[in-house]
Write a structure and sequence with these properties.
It is a single chain. By secondary structure, the chain is α+β, with helices and mostly antiparallel strands. The chain contains 21 helices and 30 strands. 37% of the residues lie in helices and 24% in strands. The strands form eight sheets. The chain has a six-stranded antiparallel beta barrel. The protein has a four-stranded parallel sheet with strand order 2-1-7-8, with helices on both faces. A four-stranded antiparallel sheet has the order 19-20-21-22, covered by helices on one side. The N terminus is likely disordered. The structure holds one DNA strand.
Length: 779
DNA sequence: CAGTGAGCGAGCTTCCGCTTGACTT
């Protein structure tokens, strides 16, 4: 046995003299194939060390010396790597960016390798050529870049671990603040305030349908008036003018234009498009992309680069030529403009461009299809477009009508893919083909319509548009966009929610055959799905941070410190000096914040007075969250009620507040006990004596009637009866019961519950089988 | 499961950026 082991080990040693360490296991697998049997390729699974978790992990007095630890879940891996490293030449092949360089350095430290001589290799694409080339010219670990990472890491820890405790003291325990998350929350708070402050105003837009004399059907087109009216009277008066007007073309222009394809996907643009086109959340997108990556179907999904490998470019050209012909192919190299991009990887693209479709879950197929189309389209020629614009004047008014038309002369990349936008589709005044017109042409109007519209508040962010904004500001990285959103939701700073649309009616005035007619139309507006809005606590924390730590949550803070990190990376300053420059003023701010008496960080907002009692009604954050209060008279207690989901202290009105006191409502006596509707921890309920039943989604606790409430109680009783009646019982052993639970049938035996094995039919179980299940599940 | 809202205060919470699995009540 010992001999055999020894021989195997020797053989392995002889065959694999080299150990290559990369960050991702999927990458390791691919590279191992390229390198052949002299190389064993292992993965570090990202970082292998981090600052000590239980305390600050930085020795400030000792020049900010970091205290690094190997996390317990990394111990085994590190031991394995160390063992392999002892007998082999190590090649550190972590990503070519700040974090990757640091991983390489931590590996030298932990594996006991000399920094000066250990081979460090990098490649931006996972192709055989790129990897063999990298092996040809190894370098050593760049300590300046490593130090820039240490500065980044230490700064984030200092900010996070000094700010958060200030919040625990001044606002609420367990809160958090950080360079990235606090700015993300700030974006949402500021947007929310714009929305609260916004007052929608009506206006009238005028659209006419014109035609050329003689050929009405073929030449009918739409044109919009360049002026918008503020009031109905103005709009109506204008239509009156139109009735007596003569319309004439003053300008007709046709201009050729080009539309270009979008760059290949990065993490952020993939998240945006998957959200717009497939309705996927940011974390869903990442998890599906991870699956595709692990199956070797796409390149790495956490990237800020739009670069494609030469090999991929060639494959695109071949594929486009095959599918659409050579005239559709255009060789393009895209450049990254993103702030702070590190470009350690390629863009997100299919691993094999000739693979147009894949097997997998529906989500995997759709996301792959999106990636395939975007990649291939990025290498296709621009679309050729003819844009026509026509200006129409009136004989009796200086107002002008405009019509624009667009005709695609050559589809180019549009044949495959067109990027979506975040904005709602603009109300079109009739893009499409315009009839041939020339200046001086006389036009007739079929009808002219003035439609009442309303100015709209800026839209709330959704996950993907927040990521887009963060990327623009250089805040966060591809690997942290999704987790950051999870964090700010988990901290209770932000909620993701839907909003029901509201109905409103608007006026439409139409001039046709010399007569103006009026129509009332209704529409829904303000419907929202999966939008992010700040909570009261999110707003309070943001305001506090703004008042005490303005420089830290400044939108340019990250961009500014990034410049400093770059100086460290260039060797222009030591990282300790850089951090020292930051920490001095920062720590003073922390001390001052703690010393500043902040009388009640959360102040009550006075809403008005209760019409019944005349007492003050106010909203504030209480022990159990946001609430409204009607102050009691002298020596009397106040009345309290919690805010509903979606309501904010900052924007709740007196009427909305008073409505909250309508609960609990007593609906009257039913079978000897009162039926009471209330709002509990788990939502609206109806109580009958000691029995409770939840209200259905369609029920409104403020308006629900006696009959419906009684019905809910009866339904609930029926359910409990069904749940308590065992599916199976045995005369021989009354302790043994097969019951129906929330997760299906289960066995209840002597006070303990047991799961049924897969495939068991509850109604057919015998006592023996049940006893066996109980016995076998005992451990 | 099903409101609460006073005050005291032990012990705990927290960052960002690299990577994947565990986990099922």
């Amino acid at each position: 046995m010992a001999l055999r082991f020894c021989r195997l080990k020797k053989q392995g040693y002889a065959m694999q003299e080299n150990l290559v360490i990369v960050e991702s296991p999927a990458k390791a697998k691919t590279i191992e194939k390229f390198l052949g049997k002299d190389y064993i390729v292992k993965s570090s699974f990202g970082h292998i060390r981090d600052l000590s978790k239980k305390d600050l992990g930085i020795n400030i007095a000792d020049g900010f010396a970091p205290v690094y630890e190997i996390p317990s879940d990394k111990r085994k891996l590190v031991d394995e790597l160390a063992k392999l490293a002892r007998t082999k030449t190590v090649w550190l092949a972590s990503d070519e960016d700040r974090e990757g360089e640091a991983i390489a350095w931590h590996l030298t430290e932990v594996l006991g390798l000399p920094v000066e001589t250990t081979k460090r290799i990098v490649f931006h694409e996972i192709t055989k050529r790129a990897i063999l080339e990298a092996i040809e010219k190894p370098r050593t670990v760049d300590m300046n870049l490593v130090n820039a990472q240490q500065a980044r890491r230490v700064l984030d820890r200092l900010v996070g671990f000094e700010l958060s405790p200030v919040l625990w003291k001044k606002v609420k325990p367990s809160l958090s603040a950080g360079r990235v998350q606090s700015v993300a929350v700030r974006l949402l708070v500021e947007r929310e305030r714009e929305i609260i402050a916004f007052r929608s105003a009506p206006y009238f837009r005028v659209v006419a349908r014109f035609y050329a004399a003689g050929d009405a059907e073929k030449t009918l087109f739409k044109a919009e008036l360049s002026h918008r009216f503020d009031t109905r009277d103005e709009a109506e008066a204008f239509l009156g003018t139109c009735a007596a007007a003569e319309f004439r073309v003053v300008k007709a222009e046709e201009k050729p234009a080009q539309r270009f394809p979008a760059a290949p996907f990065t993490t952020s643009t993939l998240q945006q498009e998957a959200s717009r086109k497939l309705g996927m959340s940011v974390s869903q997108t990442m998890s599906v992309a991870q699956h595709l990556y692990e199956q070797g179907l796409i390149t790495y999904m956490r990237t800020d680069s739009v670069n494609l490998s030469t090999q991929a470019l060639a494959q695109c050209k071949e594929e486009i030529t095959k599918l659409f012909g050579e005239k559709y192919s255009a060789w393009r190299n895209y450049k990254t403009h993103t702030k702070g991009a590190q470009e350690a990887h390629e863009a997100i693209r299919p691993s094999y461009i000739d693979r147009q479709e894949i097997e997998g879950t529906p989500a995997e197929k759709r996301l792959y299809d999106l990636i395939w189309k975007r990649t291939v389209a990025s290498q296709m020629v621009a679309a050729e477009i003819d844009r026509t614009s026509v200006v129409i004047e009136m004989s009796n008014s200086p107002e002008l009508f405009n019509a624009t038309g667009e005709v695609v002369r050559f589809d180019g990349f549009l044949r495959l893919y067109s990027e979506s936008t975040d904005d709602e589709p603009a109300e079109q005044s009739g893009e499409g083909v315009l009839p041939k017109m020339a200046a001086g042409d006389l036009l007739l109007s079929r009808d002219i319509t003035a439609t009442e519209r309303f100015t709209t508040a800026p839209a709330r962010y959704n996950e993907a548009s927040l990521v887009k904004r963060m990327e623009e500001l250089g805040i966060g990285r591809p690997s942290t966009y999704a987790p950051t959103i999870t964090t700010i939701i988990n901290r209770g700073y932000v909620v993701k929610q839907n909003k029901e649309g509201q109905k409103r009616s608007y006026v439409q005035l139409t001039l046709a055959s010399g007569k103006i007619t009026e129509k009332q139309v209704t529409e829904t507006f303000g419907k929202e799905k999966n939008r992010l809005s700040p909570t009261d606590i999110g707003m309070v924390v943001n305001d506090y941070l703004e008042s005490q730590f303005a420089p830290i949550i400044d939108y340019n803070f990250t961009a500014n410190v990034e410049k400093e990190f770059d100086r460290v990376a260039d060797g222009g300053i030591t990282w300790e000096k850089m951090i020292g420059n930051f920490y001095g003023p920062f720590h003073t701010m922390v001390d001052e914040a703690i010393a500043t008496q902040t009388d009640k960080v959360s102040q009550a907002r006075i809403l008005g007075s209760d019409p019944k009692t005349g007492h003050v009604v106010k909203a504030r954050i209480g022990r159990y969250g946001p609430m409204v209060e009607i102050e009691g008279a002298e020596g009397e207690k106040s009345r309290f009620a919690s805010l509903k989901k979606g309501q904010l202290i900052e924007s709740i009105t007196l009427d909305e507040a008073l409505e909250l006191f309508a609960l609990p409502r007593n609906l009257g006596e039913y079978e000897g006990e009162d039926l009471v509707v209330g709002l509990g921890k788990f939502g609206p309920y109806v109580r009958h004596g000691k029995k409770f039943a939840s209200l259905a989604k369609s029920d409104d606790p403020y308006t629900i009637g006696f009959e419906r409430a009684a019905e809910l109680i009866r339904e609930r009783e029926e359910q409990t009866r069904a749940a308590n009646t065992p599916l199976r019982s045995f005369a021989e052993d009354p302790d043994m019961l097969v019951k129906n639970g929330r997760y299906g049938a289960y066995i209840a035996y002597k006070g303990k519950n047991y799961r049924l094995p897969k495939g068991a039919v509850p109604a057919e179980l015998t006592l023996e089988e049940c006893l066996q299940i109980v016995a076998s599940s005992k451990k």
